[in-house]
């Protein structure tokens, strides 16, 4: 049996050891990062949390661009646009992961988001986009254009081998500028994505689309859709289809047995609509089976296939846009705009920057969302205003 003095000494030693242990754990947690990575525990020194800008864009003050209401600073930067030089990137999985993985662990999200992107060039840009949207719960699929150069194909295939949540389907399609085979390429990704669990929406993208919402903002916005799909549809111009042909149900022979169909149904004509490739689709929609803007002001005055190529002049208003994706930004035109947008996403995600507060009722009141709610719970007098868009 211990004497009172011995008990007091033992207690004092226990307190000292416990205090030292707590201080040691606190110091190690502030210096080292202990977290699970793809099923394995990773113990490494923590990175300093800051956005690593490209050498070609370090002279740009991105914060000033975002607050540049009159555009004077943007015009100054746009006079000598930043373009990155091709880099001899190391494609070892160790280096690829180091360039993409988050600097600190990310909190869990309510559901993962799948990204299906058609790609054919600018690998480094695509890596930067992946870093900007990366989360272990998300899944990324790259449908590689059949015409893509061999080096590019090899890099994307290596990227897929380095991450369990990155896919590059083996079947490839030759994508035309007018969209030919684009749907089939996205469909290859959708089939591959269905083998992954945990994602609730898939976002369809093209090579030069840029995500302008963080991982957490994207999930919050998609949650506000309440299970509805976000697909861009608008009236189709007459030049997009042959007006000399008959487009009624009878002429198209849509019914095998026309005797069971009324004359009114047979004589009704199809109404054509057009849309954009970019879309956010629920997992259910993919199982059974965004944004391209030509109306917003294009401050850069540069277009490709009648679509604005955004530059540093557009950064301030694009950063405030309620949309998920900006189509398009191109490395060959202005990497300053791309790097600043990626820095903004980084700061919002990892540094707690709150420069915008998104109004979720805007998404909740979209026509497709309201109709989906009505379809689930019908009620008399429902009217749909299809003029509300974002």
From TrEMBL:
The chain crosses the membrane at residues 12-32. Keywords: Glycoprotein, Glycosyltransferase, Membrane, Transferase, Transmembrane, Transmembrane helix. It comes from the Eukaryota. It is a single-pass type II membrane protein. It holds the Pfam family Branch. It is found in: Membrane. GO terms for molecular function: glycosyltransferase activity. GO terms for cellular component: membrane. The keyword Glycoprotein applies. The keyword Transmembrane applies. This is Core-2/I-Branching enzyme. It comes from Trichostrongylus colubriformis (Black scour worm).
């Amino acid at each position: 049996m211990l004497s009172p003095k011995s008990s007091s000494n033992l207690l004092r030693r226990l307190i000292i050891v416990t205090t030292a242990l707590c201080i040691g754990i606190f110091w190690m947690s502030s210096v080292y990062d202990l977290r699970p990575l793809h099923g394995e525990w990773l113990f490494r020194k923590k990175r300093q949390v800051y956005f690593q800008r490209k050498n070609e864009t370090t002279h740009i003050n991105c914060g000033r661009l975002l607050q540049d209401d009159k555009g004077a600073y943007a015009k100054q930067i746009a006079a000598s646009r930043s373009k990155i030089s091709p880099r001899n990137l190391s494609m070892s999985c160790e280096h690829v992961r180091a360039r993409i993985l988050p600097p600190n662990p990310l909190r869990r999200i309510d559901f993962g988001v799948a990204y299906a992107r058609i790609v054919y060039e600018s690998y480094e840009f695509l890596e930067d986009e992946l870093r900007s949207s990366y989360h272990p719960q998300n899944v990324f699929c790259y449908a590689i254009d059949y015409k893509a150069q061999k080096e590019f194909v090899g890099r994307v295939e290596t990227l897929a081998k380095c991450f369990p949540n990155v896919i590059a389907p083996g079947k490839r399609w030759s994508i035309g500028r007018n969209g030919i085979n684009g749907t089939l390429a996205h469909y290859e990704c959708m089939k591959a994505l269905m083998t992954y669990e945990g994602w609730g929406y898939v976002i369809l993208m093209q090579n030069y689309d840029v995500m302008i919402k963080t991982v957490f903002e994207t999930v919050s916005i998609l949650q506000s859709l309440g299970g509805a799909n976000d697909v861009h549809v608008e009236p189709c111009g007459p030049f997009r289809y042959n007006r000399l042909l008959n487009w009624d149900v009878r002429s198209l022979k849509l019914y095998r047995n026309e005797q069971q169909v009324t004359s009114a149904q047979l004589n009704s004509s199809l109404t054509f609509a057009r849309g954009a490739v970019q879309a956010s689709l629920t997992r259910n929609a993919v199982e059974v089976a965004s944004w391209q803007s030509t109306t917003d002001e294009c401050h850069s005055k540069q277009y490709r296939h009648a679509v604005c190529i955004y530059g540093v002049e557009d950064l301030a208003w694009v950063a405030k846009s309620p949309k998920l994706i900006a189509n398009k930004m191109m490395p060959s035109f202005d990497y300053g705009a791309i790097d600043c947008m990626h820095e903004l996403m980084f700061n919002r995600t990892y540094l707690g920057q709150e420069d915008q507060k998104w109004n979720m009722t805007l998404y909740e009141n979209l026509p497709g969302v309201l109709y989906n709610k009505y379809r689930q719970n019908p009620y008399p007098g429902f009217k749909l205003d299809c003029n509300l868009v974002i």
